[in-house]
Amino acid sequence: MPIKIALAGNPNSGKTTLFNSLTGSSQYVGNWPGVTVEKKEGRLKGFKDVIITDLPGIYSLSPYTLEEVVSRNYILEERPDAIINLVDASNIERNLYLTTQVLELGIPVIVALNMIDLVNRDGDRIDADALSRALGCRMVGISALKEEGTETLAEQAVALARSGERCEKPIVFSPRVEMALKPLADIASWHYPAERVRWYSVKLLERDQKLLEEGKLTGEELAAAEEASAALEREYDDDCESIIANERYNFITELVDSSVIRGRVGMSVSD
Ligand code: GDP
Ligand code: K
Ligand code: MG
């Protein structure tokens, strides 16, 4: 069985540039089953038995766009051995929103901080070790365009895929949200493998339509899940999807504040 590695990231994060650099000419392009979204796969240069899949560009793993559904179905059904989450490091705050979700899928993840050439050009500094510790996953700085760091990334991704080592769950949500997730995790653990319980409990809290349509839960479980969501919404006076999204953003804002130093900050004095 070949090793499968998926590339996931926002549109314009450099996925295709990286994909081309990693696979060279050994690519095949088709469509994802049933939809006209382009599917690109290729063999990793220098490795006989490693297949790279370029997933559609997405901002979130919610079920609203075709690209999101294709990406999450691929990840949940095909179970790649590892995910390379490509992050545009010059837009790190926006890009890490998807990262917090990818880390919940129960699949080994390595984050590639791409466009590091732009970060350096602007004199910004990213403390990749601090980010890596807070997110609980490996992290490599690269420039896909200049093909810098890409070999290291490929080697680390393959090693990660072979080891099957999963990331530690970052502490993203508040204690109150964690309390709401607890009964949902108990329900999810009856229906899904342990490593995927986190993903499904968050999706249950959000009343994710695609998940509810799967029909794995009993009526009683659905009612209990609904009550957990409704109770949280009463307390926050907001809907669960927004509550979860806000907590992801808060987590990322704090993380970026403490791990990214802007070289341009001093410029504002003169403009
Ligand atoms: P995708 O939408 O994720 O497939 O992104 P693309 O690979 O199409 O890249 C989007 C744009 O970013 C293109 O203009 C690339 O040339 C550029 N790009 C990709 N990687 C880098 C990088 O490491 N540094 C810089 N400066 N530009 C990059
Ligand atoms: K761009
Ligand atoms: Mg692309």
UniProtKB/TrEMBL annotation:
It comes from Papillibacter cinnamivorans DSM 12816. Belongs to the TRAFAC class TrmE-Era-EngA-EngB-Septin-like GTPase superfamily. FeoB GTPase (TC 9.A.8) family. GTP binds at residues 9-16, 34-38, 54-57, 114-117. This is Ferrous iron transport protein B. Probable transporter of a GTP-driven Fe(2+) uptake system. It is found in: Cell inner membrane; Cell membrane. It comes from the Bacteria. Mg(2+) binds at residues 20-21, 23-24. Residues 2-163 form the FeoB-type G domain.
